[in-house]
Specification:
By secondary structure, the protein is α/β, with parallel strands linked by helices. Helix content is 31%, strand content 21%. The chain has one domain: 3-Layer(aba) Sandwich (Rossmann fold), CATH 3.40.50.720. Helix 1 packs across helix 5 and helix 2 crosses helix 3. The termini are close together. The relative contact order is 0.17.
């Protein structure tokens, strides 16, 4: 998986022999019944990690793991603290699916951060979205007009369409990113473009602190694989990682 650095040079991220051979960890997966969350759950269990799943409806879980029931729209602090206590890392797939349900990512992440701070857990990896790089927020009031990794199509056509269709979603995710940056935690943000339900390829590209030129889509399975992979890469802490097939 090739990483394109901001300078335009390229390098390879450190590789692990396989996901199943990484050090086993105690992980808490938030929104484990969502489409990215299910991939995280399946891959984490398959890799032998000790998983706690946080879900609003545990009956939809695809694996039998320790479960904490929580609605992140109005989370119970005690329940979230119980879910994250003792974890090596938290993986959050929390996010809105459309403008109609926008407003879940930021307050939900604020609750997760509070639970982690209360229990001393530091590592968190979350999924955001590629267009967020140019969205203004309280913590980033003057973002670049164009992401340095975007090509002509993304800059002049797709970004306008995406903002019209999912503007409230991106606002929610931008605020979520602000919360993480101000948290004092060891965060990594993964920003994919359009998500698909294709099987994992392992052939995705990544970029540090920018999007991928020509990166129009990526599978949810590959996003989950990367989120698990960066847990073993401390150099990704306090960075945004772009991903695309």
């Amino acid at each position: 998986m090739e990483t394109e650095l901001p300078s335009g040079s390229t390098t390879l991220l450190p590789r692990t022999p396989s996901q199943s051979m990484t050090q086993q960890k105690k992980l808490t997966i938030v929104a484990a019944t969502g489409r990215v969350g299910r991939q995280l759950l399946e891959q984490a269990v398959a890799a032998g990690h000790d998983v706690t799943a946080v879900a609003r409806n545990p009956g939809k879980l695809t694996r039998q793991v320790r479960t904490v029931t929580a609605d992140l729209a109005a989370a119970n602090p005690a329940a979230l603290e119980a879910a994250v206590a003792g974890a090596d890392a938290v993986l959050s797939a929390l996010g809105p699916h459309s403008n109609a349900d926008a407003g879940i990512a930021a307050p939900g992440t604020r609750s997760i951060v509070a639970a982690m701070q209360a229990t001393g857990v530091r590592r968190i990896v979350v999924v955001s979205a590629a267009p967020v790089s140019t969205v203004a927020s309280a913590g980033n009031p003057h973002p670049p007009k164009h992401d340095p990794g975007d090509g002509f199509f993304m800059r002049h056509l797709f970004s306008r369409i995406a903002s019209t269709m999912f503007g409230k979603v991106y606002d929610d995710l931008a605020l979520m990113e602000d919360i993480l940056r101000d948290s004092g935690l060891d965060w990594t943000i993964v920003r994919p473009p359009r998500l698909t339900d294709k099987p994992p390829t392992g052939a995705y590209r990544t970029a540090v602190d920018r999007n991928l030129r020509g990166g129009f889509s990526v599978s949810r399975a590959d996003v989950a694989q990367l989120m698990l992979r960066v847990l073993d890469q401390p150099e990704t802490i306090h960075h945004v990682i772009g991903i695309a097939n």
